[in-house]
Write a structure and sequence with these properties.
By secondary structure, the chain is α/β, with parallel strands linked by helices. The protein has one domain: SGNH hydrolase (Rossmann fold), CATH 3.40.50. The protein contains 11 helices and 7 strands. Helix 9 links the parallel strand 5 and strand 6. The radius of gyration is 19 Å and the shape is globular. The C terminus is likely disordered.
């Protein structure tokens, strides 16, 4: 991967501080001794569970923070931010949350989000990758392929080949490439398609190892399998789910942990039979049948939609909270 002028060997510096992300109680995201941005280096798998920020000063912190002055996100509805709904009807999501936190570290920070809901890996590879590579960002995230593997028919080898083509183009063009093992809701979909998903994620691991990418393992986090982390459509994370993904990526980049994103939710009483059946019927009517209809007619929920944030432009840092319970990222 290239090292932009603004990077000043920050990735290599971060490589010497392997425990900065998880010093507050958990397993840190391990970073190899060589720069994570060096093509052909070892992948970094994010397993951080830290519950708070580091309390001691680390001389590498400034270099790490300065390393990410631009961020480009590629993908589908997961990266677009569904279903972290905002009052204006738009979506926030983990990428926006991460961008807001990075913007707070640098007034010149810039952000683009090329994601469009419903996109398959071929569409991401054809429509987003070259645009992202031309931006030469310090940080690029690529998440795709899950929409392919949960379809009734899927050539997993073809999906992997397109993902590989995308990584081969993106890795040399950016400071740090981040890939993910995507989260999945516990239920029949996860059970049915587990072999395909794990084949895809094993390939992601191997691909990252060859290209020096960071891998964020969301699939292995039990907390993100909890149905309460998922919207009623059972395909997209809630606001809390997206907040945890943003924290997972933040820690994987070697930045100080602010929360334990793997913390499981406390147990609650299971809804009764009638409530579960009513939820199933509502889901089928409002979400499953329209999804099947789009598949049968060759349509997508993203048809005709432009990228969420197509240009690499300055992104405002969060405004100061108005009160003790305010969420500053909602204003970004």
């Amino acid at each position: 991967m290239q090292t932009p002028a603004t990077h000043t060997d920050a990735a290599a510096t971060a490589g010497g501080a392997t425990d900065s992300a998880g010093t507050a109680g958990g397993t840190a995201a391990t970073t190899p001794s060589t720069s994570a941005g060096t093509a052909g280096g070892d992948a970094v798998t994010a397993t951080a569970t830290g519950a708070g920020a580091a309390t001691t000063a680390d001389p590498a912190d400034g270099a790490r923070r300065a390393a990410y002055r631009s961020f480009v996100a590629l993908g589908d509805s997961f990266t677009e931010g569904m279903s972290d709904l905002l009052p204006d009807g738009g979506y926030r999501g983990w990428a926006d949350l991460l961008a807001a936190r990075l913007a707070a570290l640098d007034p010149d920070f810039r952000y683009a989000n090329l994601a469009v809901r419903g996109k398959l890996i071929r569409q991401i590879a054809d429509d987003q990758v070259e645009t992202a590579a031309a931006m030469g960002a310090d940080l690029v995230t690529l998440v795709g392929g899950l929409n392919d593997v949960i379809r009734p028919r899927c050539d997993v080898a073809a999906v992997c080949a397109l993902l590989e083509r995308s990584v081969e183009r993106l890795a040399p063009s950016c400071g740090q490439l981040v890939l993910m093992r995507s989260p999945i809701r516990r239920g029949p979909v996860a059970t049915r398609f587990t072999p395909r998903m794990e084949e895809l994620f094993d390939f992601v691991d191997a691909l990252a190892a060859r290209h020096g990418a960071v891998v964020v393992d969301l699939y292995g986090a039990q907390a993100l399998r909890d149905p309460r982390m998922w919207d009623v459509d059972r395909l997209h994370l809630t606001a809390e789910g997206h907040e945890r993904v943003a924290e997972a990526v933040w820690q994987a980049l070697g930045l100080p942990a602010e929360s334990d994103w793997r913390r499981v939710l406390p147990p609650t009483a299971r809804p009764g039979w009638s409530a579960r059946r009513a939820a199933d019927l509502s889901f089928t009517r409002r979400h499953l049948l329209p999804w099947i209809g789009r598949r049968l007619t060759g349509r997508s929920s993203g048809d005709g939609r432009p990228p969420k944030r197509p240009d690499l432009l300055p992104y405002p840092a969060p405004a100061a909270p108005a009160g003790p319970d305010a969420d500053p990222t909602r204003t970004a």
